[in-house]
C-alpha cells in the first residue's frame, strides 16, 4: 500500500479491516517489515506502513475510533532510547534500540565483514563520530535544541576520518560529559541512530578500492537472513504475542 495515504485515509482503512493490522512507520524501513510480514505470515496479520513516526502517533491517538479492530502499533524508539517514552504510549511496541536497524545490528556480528585494517578505520570513525554525537545527545537530555540526523559523511573527513573542524564551528561544539560519551561508545549498537550506524559501516564496506562492495540494503538483508540478533528476535516475539492476543 502507498505510503502517501493521509492519517484520515489510514484510519478509515483500519475501520474496514477484518484482519489484524500491524501498523509500522515504514518510510525508510518498510523493506525490513516486508521480510517480517513474510516470515510471520500474511494469514495472521497485515503490515501497513503509514509513512512516518508522526503519522503513526497521530493514528495511535485516534485508536478509539477503531477499538473493535485488532491493531498492533510498532515504532522506532528514536530519542526515547535516552529518555523513557510517555506513559500514554504504553500500548506501542517500541524497538529495543534507537530503531529497527539497531535491533538488526545488535551484537555487531555484521562487523565481521570488515578486514583488520578496515576494523581499525571503522573504530576510529565511530569513536570520532560519537564524540560529536554525544554533544547532541547531551543537548537532548538537558532539554536544549539537538539534531541527531547529521550524516557521518557530513561530520567526518574521508581521509583521516576525523571530525571536520569547519563542521564543529557551525554547531558551537562543546565536549559532552565523559560518562555519557563512554556509555554511547560501550552501547553504540543500541544508542546511535541506526541510519548513522549503517552509514558508518557502509562508508568502509562500499569503498571503491574494495573488491566486494556492500550497500546499506545488502547489509540489512545480511543481518536479517544470516544472524538475527537477540534484540530483533525479541521484537518479533513482542509483535507475534500482540497479534495472537
From TrEMBL:
This is DUF4435 domain-containing protein.
